[in-house]
Amino acid sequence: MNILSYNLFVPLLGNIQNWYSHIDRIKKIGFEWVYINPITYPGFSGSLYATKDYYKYNPAFFTSPERIEAEKEIKDFTRYCKKNNIKLMIDLVINHSSKDCNLVEEHFDWYKLKDGQLVSPGAWDNGKWIEWGDLASFNNEKTILNENNEEIENPIWNYWRELIKHNLELGFSGFRCDAAYKVNKELWKYLISEAKKENKEIIFFAESLGCSLEDTKDLIKAGFDYVASSAKWWDYESEWFIEQYDTARENCKQIAFPSNHDTERLITEYKGNIWKLKQTFLFTAIVCDMWMITLGDEYGFYKRCNVVGGNEKDFEKINFDISEFIKDMGNYIKKNPILSNCGKIVSLDVLENIEKKKKEEELKNANNDNNDNNSEENKEEIEEIKNPIKKFYKYSLDEKDMVFIVVNTTDKKEEFDAKKFDIKEDISFDNIIDIKETIEIAPYQLKIFRV
Question: Positions of the region Disordered (predicted)?
Answer without folding.
Answer: 362-381
